[in-house]
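Researcher: I'd like a candidate sequence for this fold, 208 residues long. If you have to choose between options at a position, lean toward the conservative one.
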């Protein structure tokens, strides 16, 4: 029995190690998710205080201005604005920028000859923190087939996180956004601005 116990113990140890090796990516993602949830709970009180006590400084006017300009030139864009979820894996897939929000910078990033234009721009704490980020694509079989990859990627991220995503269509120049797992299309610049002001308590600065 003692020998059998030792043999079984060896098999169990090897099996656990093998499972860790095979599923290391899934385990890493799960641990990151747990960390974000606990971190979000710890910050809940502080976040509520910030929202009630003072306004955020998200530069909504600069974002809207750049979207209008890109719409007129049929420049496709995908802009992600973070909330509690830090989007660590998404940020790691792109190029770090860490710059103050401005219309010219947003437009230059999405300019078709810019190597950073393909992918998503991540905005967090009123800064452009990363560009050319890869987003998870929705796997919903009922997602409308006439929407392109930007819409699918925005929806995929919205299904998994609390981020707000703005889409400017390269084909039509129309605006759309995703929020809380829902896609809203054919919105005007005024509607988009109103939505941003509702979701992100902010002090908007006038564009130059």
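Model: Candidate sequence:
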């Amino acid at each position: 029995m003692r020998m059998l116990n030792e043999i079984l113990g060896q098999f169990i140890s090897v099996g656990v190690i093998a499972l860790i090796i095979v599923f290391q990516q899934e385990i890493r993602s799960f641990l990151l998710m747990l960390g974000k949830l606990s971190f979000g709970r710890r910050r809940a009180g502080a976040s509520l205080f910030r929202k009630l006590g003072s306004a955020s400084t998200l530069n909504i006017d600069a974002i809207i201005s750049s979207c209008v300009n890109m719409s007129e030139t049929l420049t496709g864009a995908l802009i992600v604005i973070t909330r509690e979820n830090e989007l660590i894996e998404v940020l790691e897939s792109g190029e770090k920028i860490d710059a103050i929000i401005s219309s010219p910078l947003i437009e230059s990033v999405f300019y078709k000859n810019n190597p950073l234009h393909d992918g998503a721009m991540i905005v967090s704490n009123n800064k452009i923190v990363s560009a050319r980020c890869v987003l998870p694509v929705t796997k919903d079989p009922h997602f409308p087939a006439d929407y392109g990859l930007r819409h699918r990627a925005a929806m995929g991220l919205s299904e998994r996180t609390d981020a707000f995503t703005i889409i400017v269509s390269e084909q039509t120049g129309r605006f759309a956004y995703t929020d809380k797992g829902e896609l809203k299309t054919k919105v005007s610049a005024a509607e988009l601005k109103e939505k941003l002001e509702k979701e992100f308590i902010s002090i908007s600065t006038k564009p130059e």
